[in-house]
Amino acid sequence: MNVALFTNAREVVTCAPPYESCVVKDAAVLVIDGTIREVGPAQQLERRLPDAARIDCRGGVITPGFVDSHTHAVFGGWRAAEYAMRARGMSYMEIAERGGGINASVRDVRAMSEQELLDRSLPRLDAMLRGGTTTVEIKSGYGLETASELKQLRVIRTLQEHAPQTVVPTFLGAHDFPPDFRDKRDAYIDIIVNEMIPAVAAEKLAVFCDVFMEPGAYTGAQARRVLEAGIAHGLKPKLHADEFASSGAAELAVELGAVSADHLGAISEQGIAAITASKTVAKLLPTTLLFLGKKSYAPARRLLDGGATVALATDYNPGTSPTPSMALVLTLACSLMGMDPLEAIIAGTAGGARALALDDGTGTLAPGAPADLLVWDIAAHDELPYRFGAAPLTGVWKRGHRVA
Ligand SMILES: [Zn+2]
After folding, report:
1. What is the Cα–Cα distance from 404 to 402, expressed in whole angstroms?
2. How remote is the CA of residue 371 from the centroid of ligand 1, in Å?
3. How far apart, in Å, are the Cα atoms of 390 and each of 45, 293, 393?
4. Rounded to the nearest whole angstrom, what is the distance from the C-alpha of residue 268 to the centroid of ligand 1?
5. d(CA 316, CA 74)
6. pLDDT, tens digit (0-9, with 9 covering 90-100), for 52-97
7. For strand 27-32 and strand 3-13, is the pairing parallel, antiparallel, or unpaired?
């Protein structure tokens, strides 16, 4: 039996309900065989367990590991040239005409081998780990043809075996339409429904099915068709919803019982009403809107005050959010969306776990949860978002093992 006691922490943020009392001062965390056993008064636990291995947190703060519940972390090359064009004022359409945009990532994934994609993805997961992300969702969606979507999902499965993190796979064949199907969109959806989804389900390559619903991308009827086919094959629905314009996507997510509705930068009044009355998690991705230079953000305050479960994630991808930093996301949530530091920490941990339907305690330090925890060299949890995406992280533990 492996008994470890994390001691000398000024605060332990359990992120477990009731949230009013989830910041525990001068507490220790008892971990047995990779599982959280107890969070309690430090002196008492130290006296009771004199032989436990001690991890001295040096007056810092302990939180659960981050759960980054929305990423596109398996891709080929970066797209910095495109960013430079955009900074000089070029429009998305002009960039696309010059070979940029999502099509650049689609060309990469189609051309590269599984091994090449894996070699490029592992360092990205390592960067996420060093930033405190111990659970990560990764989507396909840069293949947009059956063989390449399956290839991308197999890379995600290999990451699941090789990376220290828990990796949760999502099928996103409906990320966009491939260039040769722009004028026959329903024919591409036929391929998703009749070929891709059955193949993904047969190989058990994904837990979730996702669609990019947005004016110009997938319509409500098209999104419904894809998500219902996924449900029929055991893939849980989620949705890229109302990112730039509202199109009833949040409402559709609720109607289909989606686990989460993601983005919501332009959610309508009806959408807010639907989400707050549902179990669908409102997942907010502020780095994307910041990086694109947008001036308005998802209405986090109204969603929270209305009772929605909110999750925060990076949207890590080479086009619109090339950052793996959950700490930065938390800062933006507080500075741009009016979230309180504790709300942001909960949304980046327990909220992310809810958005991935993980019910084993992941994202919390509740008894029985996997011992995924972070030790920060800060005096109070408010400092985590305050130190502007760069709060000093001194250690990362995954299932009780130090991994960074
Ligand atoms: Zn996305």
Report:
1. 6
2. 28
3. 32, 21, 8
4. 20
5. 9
6. 999 999 999 999 999 999 999 999 999 999 999 999 998 877 887 8
7. antiparallel
